[in-house]
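Supplementary Note 3. Input sequence used for the single-chain structure prediction.
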Amino acid sequence: MNSVGSRAVFYDADLSNSVFEGCEFTDTVLEHGNVEGVVIS
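The predicted structure, written as discrete structure tokens, is reproduced below.
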């Protein structure tokens, strides 16, 4: 699954969020670390 061209918001274990645009879904998750939930808008 890719979020290329879309905005993906990743929530980490600390309940903080970061916004990545134009990045691949899987690669970003692996670099971001532990992810509890993902919201793509």
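The helical segments are 25-32. The CA atoms of residues 2 and 20 lie 12 Å apart.
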